[in-house]
Write a structure and sequence with these properties.
Blueprint: E1 4-5, E2 30-37, E3 41-49, H1 60-64, E4 67-69, E5 72-76, E6 82-85, H2 87-100, H3 108-121, E7 133-142, E8 154-164, E9 175-179, H4 197-212, E10 217-221, E11 229-232, E12 236-241, E13 244-247, H5 258-269, E14 274-276, H6 281-289, E15 293-300, E16 304-313, E17 316-319, H7 327-340, E18 351-353
Parallel strand pairs: 1-3, 9-10, 9-16, 13-14
Antiparallel strand pairs: 2-3, 2-8, 4-7, 5-6, 5-7, 6-18, 7-8, 10-11, 12-13, 12-15, 15-16, 16-17
């Protein structure tokens, strides 16, 4: 399919200070849209001026949350070129989400073409200040004007772009994490392994209560036994225990992060022992008391690496590495962001140039 392009006649004013972009506050001049109609499939791909959607009040997404999304970034390198990071993995994961939520799958190669075309159209919006990037949000939602619970027959696939700075204002500084024992984020057999918007709405209550106690995010435990560690906030989580790097196994309730995947491959390439397995909160407590809980960090597209400086489980407060960034955590952040921004040679073939 050919992508039609209609450029805006009223360009927006770009942010004057790239050091104050924040996250998700600004949006570029254009967006990509493609429609799905039963019997016709995905069709009419187009890039148009950024603007509101017109939705029927009965649109199914508003009532039954049939919606999924992805998150990725475009980076401006030192030579002025723009590159993506593992877009094929994002689009493959998007189709995993589509399958679980009964959404017609997309052509992954065409979706990458749409992303590259949109970024090229709005390339002047890609910031160049160190640590900034262009956040890319592809998403699909049901538009059937029918209050009835069934797979949608009409959907919209859209992509929007946002120039961003650091996700957490404190940047790479270690954060304090509250271990949630009352609420759960996901269960095996549910949608925890997908990027469905409902997963994030479910997590808000725990995050709110963590904030009330002075903690930045929530460490989620499993939804059945309430004992096995799953995710931290909306990120995958890693622990370095007595020299071994451990991350929860993808058992169906945990999102398979692209950053998670990359971190594991980076660690293995450098000779670290990495285990993907179930890890209980009791094991973390025992490791802490024995002085073996050496480092902890979260990983995700938005923040890349978020060091954990403290865990609070009940009345037990567990400082990690004296509340400082660990050696492995720092190495991973420097290496991964170095590859993403083109400061370090990409020996893995992860980056894709925007032509």
């Amino acid at each position: 399919m050919e992508i039609s392009i209609t450029k805006t006649t009223t360009p927006k004013q770009k942010p004057a200070d790239e050091s104050k972009l924040g996250f998700g506050q600004y949006y570029t001049d254009h967006m990509f849209i493609m429609n799905y109609d039963e019997g016709e499939g995905w069709h009419n791909p187009r890039i148009v001026p950024y603007g509101p959607f017109e939705l029927d009040p009965a649109a199914m997404v508003l009532h039954y949350a049939q919606e999924i999304f992805e998150g990725m970034k475009a980076y401006r390198t030192a030579d002025g070129s723009i590159q993506l990071f593992r877009p094929d993995k994002n689009m493959a994961r998007m189709n995993v989400s589509c399958d679980r939520l009964c959404i017609p799958k997309i052509d992954e190669e065409f979706a990458i073409k749409a992303i590259k075309t949109l970024v090229e159209v709005d390339k002047d919006w890609v910031p160049s200040l160190d640590g900034t990037s262009l956040y890319i949000r592809p998403y699909i939602f049901a538009t059937d004007a029918q209050v009835g619970v069934h797979p949608a027959k009409h959907l919209t696939f859209a992509i929007i772009l946002s120039p961003v700075g650091a996700y957490y204002p404190q940047g790479i500084a270690p954060v304090k994490i509250f271990v949630e024992q009352k609420y759960v984020r996901a269960v095996i057999g549910g949608t925890g392994f997908t990027k469905a918007g409902a997963n994030y709405a479910i997590s808000l209550k725990g995050q709110e209560e963590a904030a009330e106690q002075g903690y930045v995010q929530t460490l989620w435990l499993d939804g059945v036994e309430r004992k096995y560690v799953e995710e931290v906030g909306s990120m995958n989580v890693f622990f370095k225990i007595d020299g071994e790097v451990v991350t929860p196994a993808l058992v169906g309730s945990i999102l398979g992060g692209i950053t998670r995947m990359s971190i594991i491959e980076l660690l293995q390439s450098k000779g670290y022992k990495v285990s993907e397995r179930r890890i209980s909160i009791d094991e973390l407590v025992e490791a802490f008391k024995a002085g073996k809980l050496e480092e902890a960090w979260g990983t995700g597209t938005a923040a890349v690496i978020s060091p954990i400086g403290e865990l609070k489980y009940g009345d037990l407060v567990m400082p990690v590495n004296n509340g400082e960034i660990g050696e492995v955590t720092h190495m991973l952040y420097d290496t991964l962001t170095g590859i993403q921004w083109g400061k370090i040679k990409d020996e893995f073939g992860w980056t894709v140039k925007i032509d």
